[in-house]
């Protein structure tokens, strides 16, 4: 997942430290050494991660945009000047802007805040901005971020330093506000450079864990890696808030054509990469990089994933998979460019009833497993039609009412040919008018009919006048104020046959 | 992973909304907003003056409230409930929280029964003036929101915890002045507090945790009201009130702006929809259609780039909200045949449901076509940000991912594990996929019964008990012309007696082929196993068949098939090892050896033999000649068959005549029984016999 390194460049970072062995350095220097170690670790184990660098004090500056070329960041680290005081609020604002601009609001990101344990002074200190009354503040605090994000705070300080003890609860609060599990990293004692390096390496190990699981279809299975690794998801509805974890067993439940699946909402997408059965090479190190020598042998060992991919692609189908307790996804063939085709997992929001046109995903099976009358077809239709397919009456804008009346008059001029349509439209309008208590309309329409009658051209059919007159009279009668009443055509010699 | 919950998001007030409509005599008066009929004017010869048509205050308030519900129920078919209380001398309750009473038609029916507001009693002397007031409705509304909804009951039952009972009351009424409006709010608060006291201790009713009272004070257009607006005001921890004082024809617009806040909705204007002109079908003009949907559909585009979002977001003319303008993108070809990277999906409803442009867009979508929406970028160019599509008669806006993807430069699947294997049984797995295509199942209650999807998993497990991944690792699945339909039948959960019989027949057929020493011709392998001795070929086939059937002993009938196999073919298990049984691994091992062997052979043959010996008259490679599933049609499929000489055909017929005797010679009493059947049945693909002559 994309990571922003948020480096504190405030003056307090330049405080000198003398280690027991006599070496003198600064916190900033230690931080830079640590970041270098972090990047070195990444370039060996997770070289496809995107990393960006932001330096901040009371302002922030984007020093490196997201890149997989970690040397760019390393060289940039050499050019970081010292600025004034720590102001986290501004820095988080910058992070928010940067990630939204690049990755949108759906990609899980990581933010590594590297600081020295002091949270700033004055009005823009963390303590102040956190406690600031929301009513007064012109801008709401930038946490939680507008995208899923894990916040890790790394303090170049000893755990027993007073400034850190004071700021620890504040950091914890930030992590809680961010909404996902982050961490606070600190050394027991700030004793040597090597300790700092270990701290950063450990962080790198901890936060880039690849997801190893099994893709299973009945008795067939394949070890897989998901890239990027999926994260737990908290679903909040009006009445529930529940956190769901992706199971390491991804089990195929059946198949649905891609056209029937539609394009449902996905909370994330992951490449499914078949993993070696033996695990002889270090899996933690390979996220999507599988091009070392071992892969030659692996390439010749049949994998269920490849078979599945081929068949799904040929058939243009998707596999419905269970990825956790009452949580589903779709596996299908996906091509980034025309040439490189892949097996992709789309994770749906948790729950079985999340795609209206597929119905409850727990209630799917093949046609031959149940009696014919129980088997339906996709897409499922809701029991009630939506207003836009109901031909309902809305007269909020005058045009709506005008066009309804015009329609009736159009039919009226074509009587007796359009007798059915005339009365159908008339009853629709009358019913709506009764429901809305729109009596003026009933009387008015009666008037309009009478006028229409008098203006009929000589060529008009005699039934025309009779029906208009009949409708006009009926509309005035009180019984037409009853919703159940249906205005019927006048039986005449012209239409009785 | 813990996620600290923004609890404000849960138990929203919009779960329960109550409309209180004033039905007092005052609401019977006209809005004085005359509806124009242009189409009548042109033709008038002024002999009958047209009586002006104008809605009453009542009609205006009912249609506005109903429109509010139309939008809500289109967008949220479940979980967002609205009740109607109509107040005159008493409170009339039009519907309950019950889901089947949550529909526009139910409300309109109720309104029809209530009828127009009563007129002031002219005979003032005889009876005391009845007490017409909106307070009856407000009081009933407070009682109404204490009744739990199905969702609240469900939540309390499953989690056993207290639910927060938040609600909103929208009251359309008319007050004389600010003073009486203030008094109305105070009375409401008093009643609310009383009701909560009353409800305490009553398990079947819920106290109100918070109520949002929205009062719409309305009046005809020719009147100036002395009631002022006031923004939301916290009257008590339990009650927030706001007042909007507007002319009656403005109520719908006011409610449109309020609804966006109440349900967190947003407006999108789809611009540039090409439509045929009504009058002139050959020309087309561009129209705009405004739709409402959850504001979350916009989150991605509005948050990502400030300058881009400023450009597409404009205030809606004459209204109090912003609309996001996105451009219609005429679809090319069939869309929907690939899975879009869709990050959000929400129902939509047109704002002006009956206008011609709206109907045009709606019908276009309902007919099954989908529309991409584009958003211009400041930096230049444009980006496809949304997809409008109908699924099962409902229209959705899909938010497409416009941001950069972390899956940049992914490797192809062929670069990973198993990527270099080229003989996967893709076609067979494709058939397996088709056989396991899901459809929705209508469940007949019985909740404790196993869910269909669980049964599916069992079915998949059963059908894949023995499923070699590659062509070279199996023999029997390349001999479909001999073993079909046994694989399909044996993997079923239950087998009928007929199906057992069919399976047995397959076995007998193989026995008879073997006894005649006919070579087996695998279909897909692209080589003809010439180098392999027939005995070995048969041995491998029997062993694999045994392993396959043994994996599928799902019922007594399945066991009958297995037994039949054991009885018919003598397995020399102890030849290879001391144990009597061949376990699956062993069988697979053997198969792998065969595979390896044939592969090498194949490699040589492909380059050397075919190049040197194949003539135009040679049969094509089997992989091409015998397409999958063609087991019975080989009479016309291969050029080879069409070239059969009369003698060959004759010889084949002769052979089939003497065949029954052959089977009888096995001398088994069991066999003798089935013998007559063998005689009448199809003897399998005899076309293969021709090949033997080669």
What can you tell me about this protein's structure?
The complex is a heterodimer of chains A (497) and B (694). In chain A, helix 1 crosses helix 6 (193-207) and helix 10 packs antiparallel against helix 11. Helices cover 34% and strands 23% of the residues of chain A. Chain A has helices spanning 27-45, 70-77, 88-103, 126-131, 162-178, 193-207, 258-261, 294-300, 304-315, 398-413, 419-435, 439-454, 462-476; strands at residues 3-8, 16-18, 24-26, 51-56, 60-67, 109-115, 149-158, 183-187, 211-217, 220-227, 233-236, 241-244, 249-257, 268-274, 317-324, 327-335, 341-347, 364-365. Chain A is of the alpha/beta class and 497 residues long. By secondary structure, chain B is of the alpha/beta class. Chain B folds into three domains: 11-34 and 53-118 and 130-262, von Willebrand factor, type A domain (Rossmann fold), CATH 3.40.50; 265-277 and 284-332 and 339-400, no CATH class; 465-693, no CATH class. Chain B starts with 15 loop residues before the first strand and ends with a helix. Mean pLDDT of chain B is 77; it is low at 1-6, 575-584, 594-643 and 678-694. The interface between A and B is large, with 161 and 150 residues. Strand 18 of chain A pairs antiparallel with strand 19 of chain B, so a sheet runs across the interface.
Element layout with pairings:
The complex is a heterodimer of chains A (497) and B (694).
Chain A: E1 3-8, E2 16-18, E3 24-26, H1 27-45, E4 51-56, E5 60-67, H2 70-77, H3 88-103, E6 109-115, H4 126-131, E7 149-158, H5 162-178, E8 183-187, H6 193-207, E9 211-217, E10 220-227, E11 233-236, E12 241-244, E13 249-257, H7 258-261, E14 268-274, H8 294-300, H9 304-315, E15 317-324, E16 327-335, E17 341-347, E18 364-365, H10 398-413, H11 419-435, H12 439-454, H13 462-476
Parallel strand pairs in A: 1-4, 1-6, 6-7, 7-8, 9-13
Antiparallel strand pairs in A: 2-3, 4-5, 9-10, 10-14, 11-12, 13-15, 14-17, 15-16, 16-17
Helix pairs in contact in A: 1-6, 10-11, 12-13
Chain B: E1 16-22, E2 30-34, H1 38-41, E3 54-56, H2 57-75, E4 81-87, E5 91-93, H3 104-114, H4 135-146, H5 150-159, E6 166-173, H6 178-199, E7 210-219, E8 230-236, E9 239-247, H7 251-262, E10 265-276, E11 284-294, H8 296-304, H9 306-312, E12 313-315, E13 322-329, E14 342-347, E15 349-350, H10 356-366, E16 371-376, E17 382-391, E18 394-400, H11 426-435, E19 439-440, H12 452-463, H13 480-483, H14 486-490, H15 497-515, H16 534-550, H17 556-568, H18 573-576, H19 584-613, H20 622-625, H21 634-637, H22 639-642, H23 646-664, H24 669-680, H25 687-693
Parallel strand pairs in B: 1-4, 1-6, 6-7, 7-9, 10-13
Antiparallel strand pairs in B: 2-3, 4-5, 8-9, 10-11, 11-15, 12-13, 13-16, 14-18, 16-17, 17-18
Helix pairs in contact in B: 2-3, 2-7, 4-6, 8-9, 15-17, 16-19, 23-24
């Amino acid at each position: 997942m994309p990571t922003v390194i948020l480096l504190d460049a405030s003056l307090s970072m330049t405080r000198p430290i003398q280690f027991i062995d006599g070496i003198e350095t600064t916190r900033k220097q230690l931080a830079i050494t640590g970041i270098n170690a972090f990047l070195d670790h990444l370039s060996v184990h997770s070289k496809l991660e995107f990393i960006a660098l932001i330096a901040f004090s009371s302002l922030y500056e984007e020093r490196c945009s997201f890149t997989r070329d970690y040397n760019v960041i390393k060289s940039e680290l050499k050019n970081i000047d010292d600025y004034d005081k720590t102001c986290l609020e501004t820095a988080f604002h910058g992070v928010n802007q940067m990630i939204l601009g690049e990755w949108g609001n759906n990609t899980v990101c990581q933010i590594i805040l590297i600081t020295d344990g002091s949270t700033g002074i004055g009005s823009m200190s963390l303590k102040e901005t956190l406690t600031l009354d929301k009513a007064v503040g012109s801008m709401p605090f930038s946490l939680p971020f507008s995208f899923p994000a894990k916040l890790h705070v790394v303090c170049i300080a000893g755990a027993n330093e007073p400034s850190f003890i004071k700021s620890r609860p504040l950091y914890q609060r930030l992590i809680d506000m961010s909404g996902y599990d982050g961490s606070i990293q600190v050394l027991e004692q700030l004793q040597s450079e090597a300790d700092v390096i270990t701290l950063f390496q450990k962080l790198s190990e901890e936060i880039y864990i690849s997801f190893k699981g099994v893709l299973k279809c009945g008795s067939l299975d394949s070890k897989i890696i998901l890239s990027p690794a999926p994260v737990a998801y908290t679903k909040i509805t009006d009445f529930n808030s529940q956190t769901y974890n992706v199971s390491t067993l991804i089990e195929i439940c059946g198949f649905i054509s891609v056209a029937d699946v539609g394009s449902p909402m996905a909370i994330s997408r992951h490449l499914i990469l078949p993993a070696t059965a033996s695990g002889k090479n270090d899996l933690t190190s390979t996220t999507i990089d599988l091009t070392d020598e071992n892969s030659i042998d692996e390439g010749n060992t049949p994998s269920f994933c490849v078979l599945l991919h081929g068949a799904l692609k040929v058939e243009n189908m998707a596999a419905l998979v269970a990825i956790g307790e009452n949580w589903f996804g779709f596996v299908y063939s996906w091509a980034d460019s025309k040439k490189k085709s892949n097996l992709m997992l789309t994770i749906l929001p948790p729950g079985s009833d999340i795609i209206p046109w597929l119905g409850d995903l727990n209630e799917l099976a093949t046609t031959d497993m149940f009696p014919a009358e129980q088997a339906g077809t996709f897409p499922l239709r809701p029991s009630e039609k939506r207003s836009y397919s109901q031909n309902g009456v809305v007269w909020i804008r005058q045009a709506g009412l005008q066009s309804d009346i015009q329609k009736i008059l159009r039919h009226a001029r074509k009587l007796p040919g359009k007798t059915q349509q005339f009365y159908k439209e008339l009853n629709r309008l009358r019913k709506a008018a009764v429901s809305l208590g729109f009596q003026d309309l009933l009387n008015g329409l009666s008037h309009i009919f009478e006028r229409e009658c008098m203006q009929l051209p000589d060529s008009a059919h005699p039934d025309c006048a009779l029906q208009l007159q009949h409708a006009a009279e009926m509309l005035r009668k009180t019984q037409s104020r009853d919703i159940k009443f249906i205005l019927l055509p006048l039986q005449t010699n012209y239409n009785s046959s | 992973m813990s996620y600290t919950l923004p609890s404000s998001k849960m138990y929203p007030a919009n779960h329960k909304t109550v409309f209180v409509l004033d039905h007092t005599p005052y609401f019977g008066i006209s809005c004085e907003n005359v509806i124009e009929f242009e189409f009548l004017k042109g033709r008038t010869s002024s002999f009958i003056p047209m009586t002006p048509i104008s809605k009453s205050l009542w009609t205006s308030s009912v249609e506005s409230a109903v429109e509010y519900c139309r939008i809500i129920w289109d967008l949220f078919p479940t979980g967002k409930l609205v009740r109607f209380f109509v107040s005159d001398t008493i409170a009339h309750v039009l519907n309950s929280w019950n889901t089947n009473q949550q529909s526009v038609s139910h409300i309109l029916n109720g309104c029809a029964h209530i009828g127009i507001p009563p007129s002031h009693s002219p005979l003032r002397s005889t009876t005391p003036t009845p007490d017409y007031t909106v307070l009856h409705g407000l009081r009933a509304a407070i009682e109404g929101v204490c009744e739990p909804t199905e969702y609240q009951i469900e939540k309390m039952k499953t989690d056993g915890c207290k639910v927060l009972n938040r609600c909103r009351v929208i009251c359309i009424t008319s007050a004389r002045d600010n003073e009486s409006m203030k008094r109305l709010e105070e009375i409401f608060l008093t009643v609310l507090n009383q009701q909560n006291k009353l409800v305490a201790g009553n398990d079947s009713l819920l106290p109100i945790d918070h109520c949002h009272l929205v009062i719409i004070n309305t009046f005809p257009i020719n009147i100036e009201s002395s009631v002022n607006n006031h923004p939301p005001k916290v009257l008590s921890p339990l009650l927030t009130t706001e007042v909007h004082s507007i002319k009656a024809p403005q109520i719908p617009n006011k409610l449109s702006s309020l609804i966006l806040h109440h349900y967190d909705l947003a407006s999108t204007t789809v611009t540039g929809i090409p439509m045929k002109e009504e009058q002139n079908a050959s020309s087309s003009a561009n129209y705009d259609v405004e739709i409402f949907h959850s504001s979350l559909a916009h989150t991605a585009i509005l948050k990502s780039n400030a300058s881009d979002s400023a450009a597409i977001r404009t205030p809606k003319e004459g209204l109090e909200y912003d609309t996001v303008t996105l451009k219609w993108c005429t679809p090319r070809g069939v869309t929907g045949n690939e899975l879009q990277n869709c990050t959000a999906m929400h129902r939509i409803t047109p704002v002006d449901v009956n206008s011609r442009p709206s109907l045009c867009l709606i019908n276009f979508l309902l007919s099954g076509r989908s529309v991409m929406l584009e958003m211009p970028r400041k930096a230049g160019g444009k980006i496809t940000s949304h997809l409008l599509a109908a699924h099962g008669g409902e229209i959705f806006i899909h938010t497409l991912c416009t941001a950069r993807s972390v899956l940049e430069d992914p490797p192809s699947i062929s670069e990973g594990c198993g990527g270099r294997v080229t003989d996967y049984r893709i076609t067979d797995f494709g058939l397996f996929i088709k056989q396991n295509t899901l459809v929705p199942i209508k469940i007949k209650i019985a909740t404790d019964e196993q869910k269909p999807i669980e049964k599916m998993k069992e079915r998949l497990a059963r059908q894949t008990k023995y499923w070699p991944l590659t062509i070279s690792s199996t023999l029997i699945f390349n001999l479909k012309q001999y073993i079909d339909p046994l694989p399909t039948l044996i993997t079923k959960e239950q087998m009928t007696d007929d199906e057992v019989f069919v399976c047995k027949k397959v076995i007998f057929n193989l026995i008879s082929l073997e006894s005649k020493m006919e070579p087996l011709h695998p279909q897909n392998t692209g080589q003809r196993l010439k180098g392999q001795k027939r005995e070995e070929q048969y041995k491998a086939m029997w062993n694999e068949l045994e392993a396959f059937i043994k994996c599928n002993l799902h019922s007594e009938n399945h066991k009958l098939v297995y037994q039949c196999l054991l009885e018919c073919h003598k397995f020399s298990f102890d030849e290879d090892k001391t144990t009597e049984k061949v376990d699956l691994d062993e069988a697979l091992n053997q198969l792998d050896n065969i595979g390896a062997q044939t592969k090498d052979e194949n490699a040589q043959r492909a380059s050397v033999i075919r190049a040197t010996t194949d003539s135009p008259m040679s049969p094509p490679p089997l992989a091409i000649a015998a397409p999958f599933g063609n087991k019975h049609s080989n009479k016309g499929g291969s050029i080879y068959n069409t070239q059969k000489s009369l003698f060959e055909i004759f010889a084949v017929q002769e052979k089939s005549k003497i065949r029954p005797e052959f089977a009888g010679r096995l001398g088994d009493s069991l066999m003798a029984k089935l013998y007559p059947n063998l005689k009448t049945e199809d003897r399998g693909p005899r076309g293969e016999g021709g090949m033997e002559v080669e």
